[in-house]
């Protein structure tokens, strides 16, 4: 299965989640913007799954999350994605930095360490990260199941 297939599966979820908080025209524009994004060929499936899930939770697009945008609203989601990729998917800091528009590994390391410290003291942050983690695992399991069905 190509990484593009993962993002296509995510569009259905994106629309469903968008409809919970947006009126129909806004939700459709949100999904249409996601369809117009460049595909994420070459990224590991776990990067795509985590980035998609974080993007949905932070009401943005995967490309903005993976890109160079420095908006404060995106920084928090981006750091959560980095933490998940490092601690749950065993990705190195340089690989994470490369996937997120060539950021320096020391930036990734510093921000992940700050988030880990915050999670020790803030139950809300810990619950948010755990919720995103569970959703990303479900997304990957669904993709794996689809791959098995196609192979059979």
What is the strand and helix layout of this fold?
Blueprint: H1 3-21, H2 24-35, H3 45-57, H4 62-66, H5 72-87, H6 93-99, H7 105-121, H8 123-151
**CATH H level: which superfamily?**
DnaA protein, C-terminal DNA-binding domain
The number of distinct structural domains comes to 1
| Large-scale geometry | globular
Distance from first to last alpha carbon = 13 Å
Total strand segments: 0
Name of the CATH first level: Mainly Alpha
Describe the structure.
- The chain is globular.
- 78% of the residues lie in helices and 0% in strands.
- The protein is built from 8 helices and no strands.
- It is mostly helical and 152 residues long.
- It has a single domain (3-151), classed as DnaA protein, C-terminal DNA-binding domain (Chromosomal Replication Initiator Protein Dnaa, Chain: A).
């Amino acid at each position: 299965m190509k990484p593009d297939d993962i993002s296509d599966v995510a569009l259905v979820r994106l629309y469903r989640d968008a409809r919970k908080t947006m009126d129909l025209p806004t939700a459709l524009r949100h999904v249409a913007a996601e369809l117009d994004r460049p595909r994420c060929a070459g990224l590991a499936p776990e990067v795509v799954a985590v980035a998609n899930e974080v993007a949905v939770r932070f009401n943005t697009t995967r490309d903005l999350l993976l890109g160079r945008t420095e908006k404060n609203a995106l920084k928090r989601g981006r750091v959560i994605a980095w933490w998940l990729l490092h601690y749950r998917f065993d990705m190195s800091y340089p690989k994470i930095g490369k996937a997120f528009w060539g950021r320096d590994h020391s930036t990734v390391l510093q921000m992940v360490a700050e988030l880990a410290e915050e999670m020790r003291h803030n139950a809300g942050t810990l619950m948010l990260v755990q919720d995103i983690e569970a959703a990303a695992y479900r997304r990957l399991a669904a993709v794996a199941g689809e791959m098995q069905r196609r192979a059979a």
